[in-house]
Amino acid sequence: MPFVAGDKLGRYEIRSKIGAGGMGEVYRARDEKLNRDVAIKVLPASLIENADRLYRFEQEAQAAGALNHPNILAIYDVGANGAVPYVVSELLEGESLRDRLSDGPLSSRKAIEYGTQVARGLAAAHAKGIVHRDLKPDNLFITSSDQIKILDFGLAKLVQPTGDEASQTEVETRKVHTDPGTVMGTVGYMAPEQVRGRAVDHRADIFALGAVLYEMLSGRRAFHADSAIETLNAILKEEPPAITSTNSTIAPAVERVVLHCLEKNPERRFQSAGDVAFALESLSGVSNTSQQTLTQAPVATRTLWTKERLIWVGVSLFLLIAALVLGFLAYSSRGESGAHAVRLAVATPPKVTLPASIAVSPDGLLVAFTANNAEGKRELWVRSLDVDQAEVLPGTEGARSPFWAPDSRSIGYFANGKLFKVEAVRGRPQLLCEVPEQGGGAWSTEGVILFGGPHGISRIPAQGGTPALATKVDSKEEAHRWPYFLPDGRHFVFLGDAQTTADHHIRVGTLDSEETQILFSAVTRIAYAAPGYLLYINQGALVAQPFDAKQLKVSGDPATIAEHVAEIGPNHEFDFSVSNNGVLAYQVGSSQSSLVWFDRSGKRLETTGDPDSYASIALSPDGRRVLAGLLDVDGRQSDVWLLDPARGAKARVTFDPQSDGDPIWSPDATRIVFDSNRGGEGHVHLYETSATGTGNDQLLLPGNGDDIPSSWSRDGKSILFMRYANDFRLSIWILTLGDRQAKPLLQSNAFGQGGASFAPNGRFIAYDSDESGRLEIYVQPFPLTGQKWLISSGGGSMPLWRDDGREIFYVTEDGKIMSAELKADGAFESVVTKPLFQVDIKRVPGIPYAVTPDGSRFLINTPAEASNHTPMIVVLNWPATLTKNPK
Known about the structure:
This protein is α+β, with helices and mostly antiparallel strands. It has eleven helices and 60 strands. A hairpin with a 4-residue loop joins strand 48 (about 730-735) and strand 49 (about 740-745). Residues about 155-185 and about 285-340 have low confidence and may be disordered.
């Protein structure tokens, strides 16, 4: 009878049913003695009287229980509940290979990796004299740690071991009660000898493994027809279609291994699963066979030197000798000059915008990057450097700032206020935690992930959890960003981001303490690169600084590797990445941008002024003049300028040597308010001055926070501004100009709120908040009453009003200009939200767009045209670009 939650089987308590098949039903249960969750497989009540099924069920338990291998499901116990037998095994978390293949074929690299694991497991089973006889994607399970487990030895046939194998098994040899000519297995994966009902041995599993490999690589079954009879005939008489007919990226050598497994005559196949594993490892170029695996499967991995294995050894030795010869010739031809670096331009996938947030895998074989597809949706892509195609990872919409796991199998990334990880080959994103900002991430060999933020560097386990601070910002800093682990896996370097250039530092921290030390002054993302360098940006150029990772000391002078590396975000996110073995990737860019007019359909109209390093912009109330902050070489807003498109004039408004930016207009367009760090105490404060640049600048509000203006009320009495202070997340404040008093409007230590804008009638404010986990647009009455309306749908930031108050504009994460139109004044319950157009907006501190009072035209701070067509640059053996190595 079926079991329900709470039923007991011996010491096991049933929790839930998790599956069923021809050989039994599977339940999740709790082992109360050992305090662990397990899986229990029981024979269905309707089949208990079937002697053959009962015999095979018992055989499955006996066969699997005799095995101890990381790629085979572990059996813990066998028992009976009255007349109902059951088997207790490890409880697996993950998905079957069948489920994984529902998304399409795997990459060649991943298929080889999985195939190698299956071959190792089969080799261990065959060494014990056990043949599976029902290998298929349904019986292969991919755990959450990306390990293959072979399931269901219910059709296993125990054969008498011979020679050395006999001493390696204590399983009693038993004859399977199968009538002559009976076909046992699954149609489509059976070897020809199984189809004919003949005696089978371990080579039947090799045929099935070939069918599984074929399906992983091509996305379709090797033998599949309209009926079971036709499929069986195809197995006997036909060859499967070429894998390359559906996947042209598959190397011929890979296809040869698969076809060798699928030989009709068992004498012509690989003669052992160990040989298959060896061949697949040779194709991957890396052997991951550990000493533990050698011990667990001694026959398969150490003593079966068959003809096929000797052939593969010969091929490998030939390639090794050839490589050595070529290397010697290359060395001889260059004399004493040293190895050369090779620079390659990697093109963008078709119909995909400029790659950004580049991340090279530690093994140097893969590059992850973010890019917008044809619909403008930003996703995470992965490209192997040995093929000409990139693959998008489904479910990664909004991805930014990817970083790799040390084993090059998984990628961490940020999206919509959250931190995720995903397997690099057709993985499915897994949420790890919420994050206050995308301040870069790093993944250690000890399974710790770091990420930057306004309070310091935070740490979590790679499996996810509650973040804890690993560093804390000091009184002069605004955030710690861009962590990068050093080789010991305990120490890490990062950027201590501050408001003043003098207070920016590259620091080194450790997982063992919150204490940090300063290495040198810089305003940049940072990375460590073997054999001993720190890579960072210095005045737009990528440089390598000699660094002793053991002594934690820099030495000598930095050497330039590449010029004009792109900055792709407002927090000094320069687009470069380096592997552990000399592969460097970067994106060329420029701080130059243009102020371009667009209409509501996205049609490009005209450009205001010449290209320059524009940051935050603001349109005058009459729509005729533009205020713009300009960026300095360190990526900070340096001064405020006034542009008059009608006269083609450009005039400087602020002149202080410190950073001035984020300007807003007074209602009569005679005054402006901006922020500046000129006070010298490390904070950014609000200042007021004449819109013409004449007269004295006046400090409006001293204090211990960092204040950024966002909106001036139409009556001229109040200013909304954003404040960042260590006690709270980004919050919205209001300054009353009459008495110079400021107070918080919207403030929380749990989430950030900013970008506030007064409605033209002064009765409402629109703002953005990440209280839902990602930035969305909200409206509240002013003065506040506690009432609130969600305006955006699918994320948004930086709201601006149309002059009549009947429309709100905002920008999505992937660069869409959105409209939220009201049917009546103040009717926020019935707002109609729709996209207007997709545009490439320069990501800078402040608000990079403006809209005319009637909402008919948009001024967009747009990256320089040339930067949109620059390919990704990959450098092989990048240290050879330097004139000398560190001592």
